[in-house]
Structure formats: C-alpha cells, structure tokens
Amino acid sequence: MTFRTFALAATLIAFAGLPALAADFSLVSPDLKDGGSLVEAQVSNTFGCDGGNVSPALSWQNAPAGTRSFVVTAYDPDAPTGSGFWHWVMFNIPADVEGIDAGITPDSGAPKGAVQSRADAGFASYLGACPPPGQTHRYVFSVTALSVDKLELDESASGALIGFMTNANALARASITVTYGR
Fold first, then answer.
1. What is the pLDDT of residue 167?
2. Contact, 140 vs 74, CB < 8 A?
3. Helices then strands (H, E): number in the chain?
4. pTM of the model
5. How far apart are CA 99 and CA 101, in angstroms?
6. Are 35 and 177 in contact (CB under 8 A)?
7. Which is the most buried residue in 16, 26, 46, 165, by most CB within 10 A?
8. What is the residue-wise DSSP string for 115-134?
9. Longest dimension (CA), the chain
C-alpha cells in the first residue's frame, strides 16, 4: 500500500464517522439585502430622521437541532456611545416560528410569547436607523437559535444583558448587515 492510498483510506474512515452536515442556518428579508443600504421604511422617525420606523420582515431556515427558542436583534456597532446601540431586541420567540412580519409594534405583530426589550431606545419596540449627520453606520440584524425555551428576563432588560444571556445559550446565529448614512 502506498502512502497516498493509505492517506486516502484514513481520510475516508475519519469522515465516515461524522454525521451529515445540515444546511447552514440562514436569515433572509424582503426588506434588507446583506451588504446593501437600509431603505427609508426602516429609518427612524425621531432624532432628526424622517423615515417610516417600520421593523423589517425577517425569516430564517435550517435552525440547528435542539433549538428551543430564538432572539432577534438589530444592533449598530458604530454608534458613538462606546458600546454600540441596540435598536431592537425581541426574545423568547418560540422554536416553531420561522420568521416575523414587517411592522411589529409594541402592541401587535410579535409572535405569541415573544418579548420586546426596551433595549437602548427606552421603549419596547423597533427603533430605525438615525446616525449623526455626516456619518454612515452599519446595522446588524441577527437571529440567534437558543438551547433554552426562554430567557428569564422582561422588557426592561438591557440589550447588553440580553446579549450576554443569548450568547450563553446560543446554538447558531445568522445575520444581515446593512448600512445607512445621512
């Protein structure tokens, strides 16, 4: 047996013991294009901006085995705060949910059992993009599959605390990053 034949046989035996890989966990949106720019519908209607302040529709597929709930976030890592800015945090989304519609408000549209945090905006709802004039920021929309049924938090939890609890229980994350400037 040559070394090449031995190496090939060893590689085949090693891979034979691995489970088949599932398709990658992914996030898509009719309202957001990864690498693109936010449209006015998802821009804030406060802080000097005059967008629609409408949360985008999001859908995900191929959640990993063992997923028991989801967290959806919108985060601006470029905000001039020293710690970024959480524009939207919704957690305790049931595992059987595969997406959310556009236009979720504090009172309607969220999946049953889901909680919207006040995050950094101070109110439990989506806050669209509104960077300071002359700046362009990135906005990262993510869905994270969790290994727990729910995070034991309420709507007053900060984005940082929810992020900590999310990361402690994360199975997988999928994101779309867009930009917006003014």
1. 97
2. yes
3. 2, 8
4. 0.87
5. 7
6. yes
7. 165
8. EE--TTTTSSS---B-PPTT
9. 74
In angstroms, the CA 102 to CA 38 distance is 14
CB-CB contact of 129 with 40 (8 Å):
no
State how far the Cα of 178 lies from the Cα of 138, in Å rounded to an integer: 6
Task: Reply yes or no on whether the pLDDT at 15 is more than 50.
Answer: no
Letter for the amino acid at 78?
D
Q: For 117-159, how does the pLDDT look when each residue is reduced to its tens digit (9 = 90+)?
A: 998 989 999 999 999 999 999 999 999 999 999 999 999 999 9
Q: Tell me how long the chain is.
A: 182
Tokens 């898509």 belong to residue: 28
Q: What is the pLDDT of residue 21?
A: 41
Q: Inform me whether the pLDDT recorded for 5 exceeds 80.
A: no
Torsion sign (Cα): 25, 114, 142, 178: positive
Residues 128 and 102: their CA atoms lie apart, in Å, by 12
Strand partners, 43: 129
Under DSSP, the state recorded for 9 is H
Q: 122 or 23: whose pLDDT is higher? A: 122
| Tokens coding 157 | 């939890």
